[in-house]
Amino acid sequence: MAKRVFTIGYEGADVDRFLMALKDAGVETLADVRAVALSRKRGFSKSALRDALAGQDIGYRHFRELGTPKEGRQAARAGDSALMRRIYCEEVLTSAPAQDAFRELAVLAGDQPICLLCFERDPENCHRRVLAQRLAEQGWEIVDLTVL
């Protein structure tokens, strides 16, 4: 069986359905790849989310170094995914802290089923797609989860 990495965005989701999607997929650890793990959406800020995940026996790791900087988030919100990707790949992924964090993420993915978390519902408009593609190049199958 191929190694799998899941991705998920919580845009438009409620916490209960979100947790159910993770549980149904067999995710053991949620890898939060947001630069800022705060959310205006109830239940998706770091502490509340970590507590809700713990109640489902799902771990939580925040990979802040793999988050998108403010300019990249603004580009994504404006629908300019090409600019977001350029900023992310050129300004974030070239940094030593991000490269170290990516190696940690890959090790974690090798140990257990993980899911990359960010806000955007559509992974094509999110930096988690860039991370997922890099993991796919290392042999992982990528599965995008959708919260209905």
From TrEMBL:
Matching Pfam families: DUF488
InterPro entries cross-referenced by the UniProt entry: DUF488, UCP024492
Protein's name according to its UniProt entry: DUF488 domain-containing protein
